[in-house]
Amino acid sequence: MKKTIAIALSVIFYTLTVQAVQAQDGALLRVLTLNGEDGTPLIGATVILEEPGSEQAPELFCISDRDGLCEIRNVPVRDELELRISYVGFEPYTELLTFAGGERKIIRAVLNPAVGEIGELTVIEQRYITTGEVGVQRITSRQISRTPSPVAGGDLATFLQTVPGVITSGDRGGDLYIRGGTPDQNLVLVDNMPIVKPFHISNLFSAFPDDLIQDADLFSGGFSPKFNDATSAVLDIALRPGNMRDHRAAASVSPYMTALQAEGPFKTDRSSFLLSGRYSLIDRTGSSLTGEDQNIRFGDFTGRYTIQGENITCSITGLYTYDSGEIVPLRNVDHKWTNVAAGARCLGYSEFFSHPFNVSAGYTRYANEEGSPGQRERFSSIGQVYLKVDIREQLMNLPVDLGFSFNLKSYSVELDERFSRFISLESVNRKMPVTHMYLATEWEPATGLTFYPGVSSQFTLDMPITFEPRIRISWQPGQSDRSQLSLAAGRYVQTHSGISDERDAGTVFMVYQPVEIDNPLPSSLHGMIGVNQRLGNFLSFNAEGYVKQHDNVPVSKWNPEPRIEIETARAEGLTFGADVKMMLERSSYYATISYGWSKSEYEAVSGDLGAWVEEPVFSYSPAHDQRHKLNVAAGFELAGFNLDTRWEFGSGKPYTEIFGYDFFLRLPFENPKTDPGQARILFSEPYNGRMPTYHRLDVSLSRDIQLKNGLVLETQAGAINLYNRSNIFNFDYSVLQRVDQSPFFPYVSLRLVI
User: Fold this and answer.
1) Beta strand pairing status for 334-348 and 357-371?
2) What DSSP assignment string belongs to 284-320?
3) Could you give the CA distance from residue 750 to residue 150 in angstroms, rounded to a whole number?
4) pLDDT single digits (tens) 79-104
5) How far apart are CA 227 and CA 396, in angstroms?
6) With bands split at pLDDT 50, 70 and 90, how would you rate the model's confidence at 598?
7) Are 220 and 284 in contact (CB under 8 A)?
8) Which helix (DSSP H) or strand (DSSP E) does residue 608 occupy?
9) What's the pTM value of the predicted model, to 2 decimals?
10) How far apart are CA 572 and CA 600, in angstroms?
């Protein structure tokens, strides 16, 4: 442990020293773009540096990232250059600059909102289309707010369900399956804090409403070397800082939840706070609106402190989520899970350093449990202490991204004996340090053709070092930013696994455990190809094909009766599919249609699985194998009203039918002459049935009303499952009752902004 920390500190010290020395070479301009209305960063602003009055295509330009920062290197030494910064909806920023040899400049550019009508404009953000983006979904708060949700604004969880390849088990449970991967194979980062499950027991909600998110990136495969310990997908979320110029507050209420938010500066343009809290009301209002009891409760609380210095930006973030309730009514089984997280992140961009650098550190903990009311019967938790450093260097005129991270993971498991075979839990109740390093670069051998090769590596004290090469390639035919062909491939390894009884849709309890010593690590190979094409100024088309090969996937050993086993077998998984998406975007209306087809299949030795089937090697489609998914979203603005609609169709997912029932005696503790035994369910061949198809229409109508003294009342009315489709969630064999997903759910929500 001490040796690993010493290595980490040595790497940090060495890298910063090298940066300080290299700061003597070259010339560069760093620009921090800020919103003049609230002092927060502007993402996607176009920054151009050129000779005044030039009519040539600019050669020196960059696009601001999620921190509002971008840099232009190799600036020529000339008498005068013009800096121009533009962003839709804001007045352009211009400034004349001169550079001496080897000079470094940092410009804090404040763009003020434009006054008057902007007109019909189309934005093509450079950072979104020129980085080999196959498998990447860029998510903005505007996109989230357009997805109908039974609260004022929108929520990230609802939007994610419109993305092709993202599957849920239903409207409850909070689990996401992304292009064949299971929830434990995904990595969720919130400002570099690893959060295991920030999604609520109602799948309409996460811990991230639209007004908390700066932006988010969903990598559904082929992700870069800087992300580690995940074999399927990565969700990278950046929260926004609080308002740097004005104090603001908001309160909202709807039948689903109530929320409070406050933000403002401690010191104008230098530091701010952001506080947000939400708590559900559906357990009190659901029965009167739907005629069914909604025995679920959830909430989330977020606090954030941000500092914007001359040469550094830092944020400190705290997050807490809480979920409790019944996944299946009448089963009398309670589920609970919590997330606790605290972390700090600093971006340094002083002219003293040749490149900006990121440093993050913090602690997170996830715990989930399941049992009868008032009695915990199963429990699993994972805690993580992390330190992460990301740096960019220059080597032989190539940009080189490198980084180091250290993660100390602590696992804990408690299982009631009647839910698991009597085995030792020493292998899962332990601490495990994991060290990660990566290296990546960018090479453009020809105009419009760019390679992004890299390698990632992980190692622990009791496991061998991993080798994970990865590459992304992008090509813009004709050097046009209107079309792009991109490819991605790579190897991915993780050091933990999550075990659950996937045969039962009524449980979301998962045991998180490290891979046992001397066992092979779970890994995957990804291959992806995609084409992105803009058709005119308002229409875009995207198509992607993908394949994922998962090796050494730990799966819970099966029994004819429903119970979880932390003893595992190793399976091999193969997922392949294709997604297509067409999007029309105008100032007053929009429409999106997306379709995804995929197939997932697992294969394992029947004896290892404990399966009671004749085949020596058993192949099956896991519970998240949904072959077809179609989403249609549309909306328009008219006379101050905004109408948003979303329709989703999904084919049926696999489930395990039952063979029958019997009575079970626990010998020698129970006497067959006097004890009747305990009734139990016996499963048939695993995953031998398919659920019926699913479809649902959600709609919302909203309008903002300006009140006196600057108050704004945001109103919204709508309905979930507008035509009251009976979509099955599962069939509860214990009470022989069908359990459906949400029925027709009308709502009205109000939000007062001060």
Assistant:
1) antiparallel
2) HHHHHHHSS---EEEEEEEEEEEEE-SSEEEEEEEEE
3) 11
4) 788 899 998 889 999 999 888 878 88
5) 25
6) very high
7) no
8) helix 606-609
9) 0.90
10) 11
